[in-house]
Design brief:
By secondary structure, the protein is mostly helical. It is 75% helix and 0% strand.
């Protein structure tokens, strides 16, 4: 069976990027843009090549071109916000996440990303609110399940709920060592020390 031309170009972008051949990666990524210039996601592989070189401004500029073509794409707004957060610009990041939610009020990754930014800056109450909103729209959102479990772990009276969230996160992302670490901590907070050690030993083999 012949490979889909778009998938073939995607694979080339990733391969050339891993090899550090960024000019060739951008050439392939540019062809993806040409295939559908009116679709914001078409610009994402090109942005990856700039991010791989730690040129966050270049990556953001590429995504801006995509958003100029398709303003209401929530996924690309979230990606732009994550780049802004990497630059340390929380205000711009939160603005991007809000624009994603304006485009789609039920887009769970935007609520989760917003919560991550708020949590990083110590705004725990708003972070909890947005993790819960993410889970209202997508009960399997592993990022929200995991991070909310960690936030609840040290809150009085929340240990049982913390463990429930951590176990659900594990069910949805069992290969993520960070999720297993959280599960181990949740088990510990619930007095299940032997299970904690098993979980942490498993996580240690995966890092």
């Amino acid at each position: 069976e012949r490979i889909n031309p778009r998938q073939g170009l995607m694979d080339k972008v990733q391969a050339f990027t891993q090899l550090g051949q960024f000019d060739k990666a951008r050439e392939s990524a540019g062809k993806l843009v040409q295939m559908n210039p009116h679709m914001a996601m078409s610009y994402v592989p090109l942005a990856w090549t700039y991010e791989a070189q730690k040129d966050l401004d270049g990556a953001i500029a590429v995504l801006d071109k995509g958003l100029a073509a398709e303003r209401d794409n929530p996924q690309v707004w979230v990606l732009r916000g994550q780049l802004c957060l990497k630059k340390g610009d929380q205000t711009q990041a939160l603005s991007c996440y809000d624009k994603a939610l304006t485009a789609d009020t039920g887009y769970a990754p935007a609520y989760a990303a917003k919560a991550v930014a708020q949590q990083a800056h110590g705004n725990t109450g708003e972070a909890i609110k947005n993790y819960n909103l993410a889970l209202e729209y997508d009960e399997h959102n592993a990022l929200s399940l995991n991070n909310l479990a960690m936030l609840y772990a040290d809150q009085e009276g929340k240990q049982a709920e913390c463990l429930k969230l951590a176990m659900t996160a594990y069910e949805n992302a069992s290969s993520d060592p960070g999720v297993i670490d959280t599960l181990g901590y949740a088990l510990l907070k619930n007095g299940r020390a032997r299970e904690t050690l098993r979980a942490l030993q498993k996580a240690d083999t995966m890092w």
